[in-house]
Write a structure and sequence with these properties.
- This protein has 87 residues and is mostly helical.
- The chain has one domain.
Amino acid sequence: MAVYRHIQSELADYNNSLDSYCRTHWGITVGHYKTVKATTQLVGVTLGFYAILEGADPLQVYGLIAFIIGGPEALEYAIANGEDKNE
């Protein structure tokens, strides 16, 4: 149970840090950010597979899907790990 509490504490700290950044720089909460991120990723993947069904080159579509999924994840990683903790 100690590991569970440790992970829960780390997740809470991570979300609080991300929430603070989102509120300061964009005026939205972390919940809004994650909702927009998930919706964008879901729509991107869905449209990508639809494009493949319509005859688009699968390799190009997979590259675009990787960019659509990886972009917000990279942004979130940069926010969480690039922010100066002393401020």
